[in-house]
């Protein structure tokens, strides 16, 4: 009977194995330095590779590190706590993370010099009303509402005007739905549409559309300035809005606004509330005037000559003659149409002589019933041409030729109009929906505020536009509506004639609102250009990323001013509006495209909190944007698309060659090569990470797959749409076993087809199975399409087998995946996993998040729940709190973290008391160490066994007791696992080195042995000190964790659990397997998970 001795073993010093973890990947180690303020921004390194600041990649102070290493309840994970921190440490760092963005707010504070630099960043606290709804209203309502909507109603009629409003508002509403989905798919830093598109469709689309959005915002500033100058010249100084006047005064106004923006952005932001108040007061005055017109319509008489409208400010009395002291004298109107002289003999304009002068009410009021004549528009088709006089249909008139000299007395059309032109002019009044997403860094709950505020703002503005169209058509005379500059109402704004209490309310309100909108555009456009330049995707724009010391984009402001000046030189609001419509429509088109692509690709990171979206709505919005572009102006649409296409190609092909094959196959090969080369640039961004599986299968003697449920589990994980490689190893010589290899490949492919696994198969022949697995881990995949996750089975029956090759292969594979920075999944009791035909109608998927190793435990249940088998299961996430942790705060922080991840789950924090190590733990540890010693003895040669005989008497165990103990150890089984199917790769050859026999001189007698045993029995308390205390601590962790897991998750459909790392000292491999068995006892389905050393899930968009 072999004997052995239990002796205390000191902890081994860390080997070089610890250097395998975390090289150039995620570093969780504590630095002891004060962490800088985290901002929710996207930074870029010198190579233009974007990096997102994370709230959980930097550890806290060194004190927490010390506590982590000596936590008795986490002894199983103590060797890796420097790179895989406790969940409580992670959450404590996460709760201090803020997402205040670097933007105008910081520029304001910077201008206050040293005092503002000492301010600590405030947490975002803006709600839906102040942060999204009101800013969107201010940006959407603008110059078109006050200066052109009445004219559009007059020219197109009420029905066509409603159709124009419906088309434009529907387009922006669909875009807002897509934008809400993108904006709620994580934290969106400042940058608005540019950030969302570039991060959703890549830098090529992002750069092209970002520049289009920039140009649209810049031309919008020019449009607002032209509108302000038009109000200024016509309403304040009664000048004609001649082109040169618009150019001169517009250039002066642009220069003044640029100086204001350059000197201080804080003044612009402080005046924003005033500008918004002006807009709201003006709109309210319109509705008040419309209601008042029911009983008391305002007095605005219109002078008509025949059926032609006269310019009212050119004369005082609407009559051909006036009576002064019983004497009839010619009026000022007569003098304009007749040459000086006697009234009876004077030479007058023929039209003036043959038609009477009449006066009609310009604002008949809401109860007048004039709406009936304006449903389809009362404008004859010929009056839609350039320079034709506005005439009132239905008013009697004698057709006669008038002289050219009197043309200036009539109100005429300044441009040729059509339905398509009116669409292009009106569309800018529906833009401005990105104001909320641009302020996401200042919002308390951006994922809730952006959709609600934006959609409510669009609904409000749409309601205002629809009601305004009806009110204008119901209250205002048709010739007045078609009078663009208010010539028939003494240079008043046409919309101002309806307002109450005075037209000056609209004049002053619209002037300040347009000036404010222009300042906002001049403030936002340079910052957008600066953001594009800092991303370094367009090299020639790099200079515009620099500015003043406080970050103000000086050079970008200069370029913005020059481009806006080009719009000012056009000098026509009606010609600038279609230009910026093109750029905004291009931007909205790609927002819809980004949402549609993300929805159809179903990437794991695509989890918008806004649920009311669909790819069909996004495609409808994209189609409407494209249609409106060509409806408004087909040549502007082509120019905008060419500009965007050129920028796209410039970014895509900068410094790269493009090669084409011939034919369809050549094109496919070229596309595949191009995609692989693009993937080869670097590791994927966290948002694009998905499990690329390498599934290690074992084949039996007949080359049949031994555990097909591994493939079933892989197919259920494929909601991630990643790569799947199924690998296996055949032991032997490649030259002799090539035919067997082909048969094995075919068998694996058939099983993949049965289990509906789409992927690739790779079988290798190796002299040793262990080496074959290492080759598969190293060489599978091509270029960027390589596996990042290994799935392997559990070595069932390793306790009953005297052959150590099964669990040694298992542990060696774990070490190899760790060294290669690959994630690892080990489904335990895989035969109990559901098939693809089963459905779980209830139950839970329980995640036990003990240490943070990249977020794999969060991502995997989300992917499983996409499959029909697991869809109805609820997700529960448990984490462990130690005695010094605040479990209540941990639960709140964990719930916040899951909310930002857009993952719905129940959260529970399990408190583990710092109890003493139980006798059961010592018993299990003793059994484990005795079994290890026994197996080591069985592998020794007969000479070595003879050498150990003497030492075996030192153990406080009699030969009979030891024999019973061995039998007990051999019969130890997993109490709840019924699967006993032989070990993985048990056919591997293991080299055994025979130790030469040595002569052993026995000096012990039986009497001496009995005396020694009596001495040992007198001190049983020393027995526990003889065991390896490190093993005791690890066994204590395994027992304690198993107790709480079984207590909470004994009826769970699946339990996901952090898999402890293998020991750095190879001598403890047998003990490692025992720890894993104890940890998972009593659980039907367990998935052990190890991260690959990098983050795989993010809160960012």
UniProtKB/TrEMBL annotation:
One of its GO terms (biological process) is chemical synaptic transmission. Residues 708-826, 840-916, 1023-1101 form the SLC12A transporter C-terminal domain. The chain crosses the membrane at residues 127-152, 158-182, 222-241, 248-265, 271-290, 415-435, 455-481, 579-600, 612-629. It is a multi-pass membrane protein. It catalyses: K(+)(in) + chloride(in) = K(+)(out) + chloride(out). The keyword Cell membrane applies. Its main location: membrane. It holds the Pfam family SLC12. GO terms for cellular component: plasma membrane; synapse. GO terms for molecular function: potassium:chloride symporter activity. It comes from Gouania willdenowi (Blunt-snouted clingfish). Belongs to the SLC12A transporter family. K/Cl co-transporter subfamily. It is found in: Cell membrane. Residues 31-54 have a biased composition (Basic and acidic residues). The keyword Transmembrane helix applies. This is Solute carrier family 12 member 4. InterPro entries: AA-permease/SLC12A_dom, KCL_cotranspt, SLC12_C, SLC12A_fam. Residues 31-60, 102-123 are annotated as: Disordered.
